[in-house]
Each structure stands twice: as C-alpha cells, then as structure tokens.
Design a protein that fits this description.
By secondary structure, chain A is mainly beta. Chain A has three helices and 31 strands. Chain B has one domain: Glutaredoxin (3-Layer(aba) Sandwich). In chain B, strand 3, helix 2 and strand 4 form a beta-alpha-beta unit. By secondary structure, chain B is α/β, with parallel strands linked by helices. The chains are: A mainly beta, B alpha/beta.
Chain lengths: ~550, ~150
C-alpha cells in the first residue's frame, strides 16, 4: 500500500511542477519534456445523518468518500497511464455490499497506436458490436468498472477489414475475477470491399467470439468450464435511413444468477431509423433469454464483473418523479421494443415561431418470454411500458418552456422482485428557463405523479438560480402525499471555473434504483451532506 | 485551462464514427485542421444541460459561422443503450453541426473528461480552453473565446 502512496505523491508532484513551470518557462519546458501529460481528479464525499423515517442508516464513521486520480501520457504513437482509486470508505450504495476502506492503483496501461495497428497491454476497455456479447467499461456514477487486464490488439490489414483481439481477466471490485477470457471481433465494410463509387450507401457485417474459462472442482464431469459465445451483426445505412441487427448465442453457462441453467443464452436486437428534413424516427426491437454473462459463475450481483452489457432499452428521464419507476433489463428473459419520434417545427412557421418548437415522443414496452422461451414472440406477462412526450418551446432569447406527459406501467413483482400490485402512473411536468441577462438565469420545474397503488401520489418542485457565472444554486423537493408524507428536500450550490467544478448539497435521498446509461443500482436512503469536486488538467 | 505557448500536443488516435457512418481519426482531425479553431462539445441524448447548451449554440450557429472561422463538433458519449437514438435526435433538433459517436467513451477517457457537458477549444494542436458543466448563458462565453482566437 505504501508504495502506491509514494507513487501517487510522485505523480502529483510531477503534475504540479509541470503546471507551475508551464506558467513561467513554458517554452523551455516544451523543449525539455517531449509528449503531453493530462489527467483528472474526482472526489465524491458524503457525511451521513440519521433519519429513521426514510430508513436512512448511518455507517459507523458517518462518512463516505470516493476518489479517482487518472494520469495519462501521450508521446507520438505511445501512451501510458494509471488510475488511482481511494474509498475511505466507499459512499453508501456504491458497491453492492459494504467493502473495507482501501486505496490503490487499479488501472495501468501502455499503448502503441499506428494507423492500422494498435496494441494495449495492461488494463483496457473494449466493446464488440453493441456490447451484448462483450463490453469492458467504466461508469463511476454507479460503481461499474469491468476493465480487462491483459492485451488488446487492433488490426486493419485492408481498408475494408478491421479486427480486434482481446485476452485477459476482468476487474472485479478491487481484485481480478478468477476467470480468463479471450475474444476476437471482425468487421467487413462491404461498401469498400465491393468498391462502391460513393459514400451513399454504407454496408458492413461483423462477427464476434468470446470464450471464458473458469476452473471447476465440482462433481460434474462434463461441466462447461469454458463458455463460448458467438455473435453476428449487420449494418446498412445511407443518409436518410439505417437498419442494423445483432444476434448472440451464449454457450451453456450454469451460474448462480441463472439458477445454474443448462440452457444456452440468446439475444436478438434490431434497430431501424429514418431521418428526413426536421423528422427523426428510431425503432428498436430486442429479445433476450438467459443473457447474464458473469466472469464468476457464483457471483450474486449482476453489476460485479460482468463480461457483457445488457442495458434497459427505455428512455432515460431527467424528471424526479419519472425516476421512481424505472425499468431494468430482465436478463433472464424479456422481449419488447422502443420507438422514438423527434420533430422540429422550423422557425418562421406558424407552430415554430421565431426559434422553432421541438417535440419528442417515446414509447417502450417489455414483457416476459412465453413458456418455451422463444425469443421471437409477442411475449407473455407484461413487465413495463412507458409512453411519453415532451414539447420544448423557446419563445424569445430570454424564455424557454417545456411540458412533458408520461404514462408508466410497472410490474413491481418482476422488477423489484417483491410481491406487490402493478403500478399505473401518470406524470405531468412543466418547466421554464428564464435568462434575464447574460449568465443570469432562473429555472423552475414542477412535476406531479399520480397512481392508486404503491406509495400513491408524488409532487415535486425544483428551482435553480445562476446569479452570475460561475455560481449556481438549487433547491428541490420531492414530496410523497399518498402514503408516507415525506419530503425529500435538497439544496445546494456549485462553482465552476474552466474544467474544475465543486458542488455542495444537503438533503435527503430516496431509496431506489439509480440508473445511468441503462445500468441500475439500488441506492439506500440517505440524509446528509454531499460534496463533489472534479477537475481536468494538462501540461 | 488557458492557452500556453508550448509545443503542439500529442492527441490520442481515437477512431470515431460520424452520423453518416464515416470513420474519423481524432488525431488526424486535429492535425489536418492546422490553424482552424476546432470546438468539441461532449454531450449525450440523456444529458439535459448538454442539450440546452447545444440547442442554444444551434440557434446562433449559422450567424456565428458567417462571422468567425471555426468548426464545431458534438461528440456524443451515448453508449449502446442510446447510440441509435443520436441521429434521429439531431435531425429532430435541426442541429446542423457535425456529430461524432464515442460509443465506449474512449475519447472522453483519453482527454480526461469526467462529466458532460464538457467543451474543448483546440487551435494549432493545443487545447486553449475547456469548460465543464453548463449554466444558462455559457454559450456566450464560448463564442467570446472563439472570437478571441480569430
């Protein structure tokens, strides 16, 4: 542990001295040091207070703090970097189970990149196709980092062929999963292969393979220690339309989360889109069965060291009330679709006015698979649906308003895995942004959710003031007036200067699913202070 | 970070696809731009402050383009949950600047961007301005910064 602190200190000193020297002897520095350093630092800390009404628990020392320091160096075709992380201890709900305080360098890499070739050794992030078969990524907001330690090679031997190869083991919280994976992905650009004369039509096909090996010491002789997965995909597009799809087959993968099923996993996703003038339409259909793909077959949490990425394909809302009933993809089996329509009434038209009027509508619906798990079917038990629309209108340079309507169906028994009545909820949200002078603005938002089941009705209000850049203040409340009569109030301020932002807030956080990028984590209720600092720097 | 008179930076060679399906190498884009001012705004379809900022930039984009020499790129960090939404979304917004996709956040990570929205101005292969977060009116600041570089 000590050596990491020493490394951290040395790194910080190096960066600080580089930044200090920059101001005085910048030109001299550039002739001495080749290449380019850049980095970022992020801290998120919470101090917890007790509130038994909302069920907020207090950790022993009332404090949680997550820090990330990342440093990268680029010189010509070479790059290298490290990421240092400290959880002293981790903030509540960041990891699925409480973990001991710790700090260490968790990611390090060295990379060589040329036009048609690159190799990275160390910890890397990568994705094959849509990620349904393989995705290594980081999402700090919800505590996911499944970077792979090993080697990642990219080769483009011709202008129509791109290949990727990976080999390594996946990060699992602070350690590495006890499994080794290897994989390959190839994409053929058919338009280039057949020498299309222009760029009017793009067509490509691709295929992926991932094999995961984990030792097994149980009684079964024919236990699948290696799980082989394959995926095929296509993509056709021109300037106005696109259609693409991917089909994945995951080999027999008995694991705790699929109740040690001997079935293969399957997933099919097809996307289509159309754009013309001021109109954009997008439709996605997806079905999956037995598609959780964990490194460790005995893992009990989906978010710990997954190999693939199965997001909920629904709209991610920015409203407090919309985030009470959010869907998370049911990897055991689901089938459904999502459609989006975007339209801009141009400025100068009757409905557009001087600045145009923007409308968007979205619909999604997901159901369980039928009894024989066919992935091409209309489905069985309904899990979730969301129909919503939003109209955004800028009236003049100062005033902009938004109105949104939403209807949600939420199958609590399936999504929350507790026996409860289904929820049918209606939401209305209205908002306004008033900018009365340069960098002086005021934003308000009011929302209401009504439902006859679960916790019944909610109302919410938010006000945000920006008196003069770089300061911003906000106050919000989310109030349940059907069952608990609890106010989840928050107030806070932030200050931003270039690439540095500091914010401080005080209030109550509702327990529930917190989702970013389609991956959700259950966050316990909390009450107290939250401070966050983010900054990016470079020499 | 303000401009500093030092050597050209080495930018990471990250390959991004634009909405027309064409692959663009970020390092090449910077190199080939020479002294043209490049503005990169990192955003996502689920990030409301990002969209407010880009809507406001879009409203003034034509006018500013005619009076100043700069190229503006929106870099979408939407991942495979929402990446298919990006092109129809832009069309429905009527944005006319080019948008590129950073589907697994490779460029975002390489440039050490923590949160969106995040705006970078690059000129002569140097980052001369960067800003994180959005407060109404921030676009005025951005256009002022671009103007200084003319």
């Amino acid at each position: 542990m000590k050596k990491y602190f020493i490394f951290l200190k040395v790194s910080l000193l190096l960066v600080c001295s580089l930044m200090a020297v920059k101001k005085t002897e910048a030109q001299d520095l550039s002739s001495i040091i080749k290449g380019h350093f850049n980095g970022s630092f992020e801290n998120y800390s919470q101090y917890y207070l007790k509130d038994s009404a909302i069920g907020a628990t207090i950790p022993p020392d009332r404090f949680g703090s997550n820090s990330f320091l990342k440093l990268d160096y680029n010189y010509d075709k070479f790059s290298a970097g490290v990421q240092f992380e400290a959880y002293l201890p981790s903030v509540l709900g960041f990891f699925p189970l409480p973990v001991k305080s710790q700090s260490k360098i968790l990611n390090k890499y060295f990379k060589y990149t040329d036009k048609k070739f690159s190799i990275q050794v160390g910890d890397f992030y990568e994705q094959f196709g849509s990620g349904l078969i393989f995705r290594a990524y980081e999402n700090r907001q919800i505590g996911i980092n499944n970077a792979m330690e090993g080697a990642n090679i990219y080769v483009a031997p011709t202008d129509f062929l791109k290949m990727k190869f990976i080999y390594g083991r996946t990060r699992s919280l602070f350690e590495y999963a006890n499994a080794l994976s290897r994989g390959a992905d190839a994409e053929v650009d058919l338009s280039k292969l057949f020498g299309a004369k222009n760029d009017a039509l793009n067509a490509s096909i691709g295929g992926s393979y991932i094999g995961k090996f984990q030792e097994y010491s149980g009684p079964r002789d024919d236990f699948p220690t290696t799980v082989n997965s394959f995926a095929g995909r296509f993509d056709i597009s021109n300037s106005d339309f696109s259609i693409d799809g991917e089909y994945v087959v995951k080999g027999e993968d008995p694991n705790l989360l699929n109740s040690y099923s001997a079935d293969k996993g399957r997933a099919l996703q097809i996307n289509g889109s159309f754009t013309k003038n001021n109109l954009g339409v997008s439709v996605t259909v997806r079905s999956l069965y037995n598609m959780n793909f964990q490194n460790d077959r005995d893992e009990e949490f989906l978010s710990v060291a997954p190999l693939n990425f199965v997001p909920a394909l629904t709209k991610q809302h920015d409203y407090l009330t919309s985030n009470i009933y959010v869907y998370s993809a049911q990897v055991k089996g689901e089938t459904g679709m999502q459609a989006d329509i975007y339209y801009n009434f141009s400025s100068g038209t009757a409905l557009g006015g001087k600045y145009g009027t923007k409308i968007s509508a979205n619909f999604s619906q997901y159901s369980g698979l039928d009894i024989d798990h066919k992935i091409i079917s209309s489905g069985d038990e309904k899990y979730f649906s969301d129909a919503n629309m939003e109209i955004k209108k800028k009236w003049n340079k100062k005033l902009e308003t938004t109105i949104a309507l939403q209807h949600i169906f939420y199958n609590s028994s399936v999504i929350r895995a507790v026996s409860a009545d289904d929820v049918n909820a209606n939401i209305i949200a209205i908002g306004a942004l008033y900018k009365w002078a340069s960098k002086k603005s005021f934003r308000v938002k009011f929302e209401h959710l009504s439902t006859k089941t679960d916790e019944k009705n909610w109302a919410s209000g938010l006000a945000e003031f920006s008196f003069s850049s770089p300061y911003q203040f906000f106050v919000s409340d989310l109030y349940n007036y059907g069952k608990t009569n609890i106010h989840y109030y928050n107030l806070g301020a932030s200050v931003t200067k270039n690439a540095t932002r500091f914010s401080l807030a005080f209030g109550k956080q509702r327990a529930g699913l917190f989702c970013v990028g389609g991956v959700c984590r259950f966050i316990p209720a909390s009450y107290g202070f939250t401070a966050s600092l983010t900054t990016s720097f470079a020499n | 970070m303000q401009a500093a008179a030092h050597a050209q930076q080495d930018f990471p060679s990250v390959k991004l696809k634009n909405t027309a399906g064409k692959t663009i190498d970020f390092a090449d884009l910077i190199r080939e731009a020479k002294d043209t001012t490049l503005v990169f705004s990192f955003w996502a379809t689920w990030c409301i402050p990002c969209i407010t900022e880009l809507d406001n930039i879009s409203d003034e984009y034509k006018e500013k383009q005619s009076s100043m020499n700069f190229k503006f790129y929106g870099i979408s960090i939407d991942d495979s949950r929402t990446t298919k939404r990006v092109k129809p979304f832009i069309q429905g917004k009527g944005w006319t600047f080019e948008v590129m996709m950073d589907v697994n956040s490779e460029l975002k990570r390489a440039l050490n961007i923590t949160d969106v929205p995040h705006v970078l101005i690059i000129k002569d292969s140097k980052i001369v301005y960067r800003h994180t977060g959005y407060i109404a009116g921030e676009e005025d600041n951005l256009f002022d910064e671009i103007k200084k570089l003319q």
